[in-house]
Design a protein that fits this description.
single chain, 253 residues, alpha/beta
Length: 253
């Protein structure tokens, strides 16, 4: 995690560039979203997030490729490895994310998430679960693409943690498009698990500074549309988990 010491000029340059892009993102939000009519705000936010994410990926030298049809609406369920997941997926398609409440307080990314209209989950307050499900349902009804990371936390990528089922309720109520996604990263000059994945007790700012020292990061996203879901959310969680695992094993082979 100290590789930034080997490339101080690269890190300094990218951090300055990152600051400039964040200022530009704030300016663009004010132009395209702040005064937007209420009914148009969700789509304006999603478009703003897509444009801003593409620019930030260039700053961080994240090269992205995808396999399968990128969904444009419905529910997209993915494994979760890093805060980069949001940038990678948002750059591919305008979308609304569901994230844990703690993300609101992250430097830079918390501000980014709030402006983008992220649906935040209070995991410690079970009484809030119904309200969160209703927000997801409302977003789906507008035709938006909603992205959910049902592992509930990020991991080092060795496996896919069991999927929590509580927020999958909207997918059992109506006929929404349902897509399973697998995210992967490759790093030529470091350890993906320790330097790209964001998990365990890692701290955001040192992790981001170290990430800025990397020459490039290869990100890949695989998508598979499910033809049939399940009316039982716990069964649906197991079905989606099995599909993500299947894609992970297929890539490994």
């Amino acid at each position: 995690m100290n590789s930034w010491l080997k490339h101080p000029l690269r890190v300094a340059g990218r951090l300055l560039w990152l600051g400039g892009e964040l200022f530009l993102a704030a300016l663009n939000y004010g132009i395209h979203c702040a005064l937007c009519p209420r009914q148009s705000l969700p789509s304006a936010r999603a478009a703003w997030l897509q444009s801003s994410s593409r620019r930030l990926l260039r700053v961080l030298r994240i090269e992205t490729e995808f396999n399968g049809n990128v969904p444009s609406r419905g529910l997209l369920v993915c494994n979760h490895l890093s805060y980069l997941d949001i940038l990678v997926l948002a750059a591919l398609a305008p979308c609304v994310f569901v994230a844990k409440q703690e993300v609101q307080h992250w430097p830079v990314f918390g501000w980014f998430a709030k402006l983008a209209g992220t649906v935040f989950v209070h995991r410690e307050q079970r009484t809030q679960a119904g309200r969160t499900v209703d927000k997801i349902e409302n977003a789906l009804q507008t035709g938006a693409l909603v992205v959910l990371f049902p592992e509930g936390t990020s991991s080092g990528g060795e496996t896919v943690l069991p999927f929590k089922s509580s927020l999958l309720e909207p997918a059992t109520r109506r006929t929404y498009s349902l897509t399973a996604g697998l995210l992967r990263y490759e790093l030529g000059d470091g350890d993906v698990s320790e330097e790209v994945c964001y998990w365990k007790d890692m701290t955001l700012v040192p992790h981001l500074i170290n990430l800025c020292s990397k020459r490039t990061v290869q990100a890949s996203a695989l998508f598979h549309h499910l033809r049939e879901g399940n009316a039982d959310r716990k069964q649906l969680a197991r079905q989606l988990h099995a599909e993500v695992l299947r894609m992970k094993h297929a890539v490994a082979i």
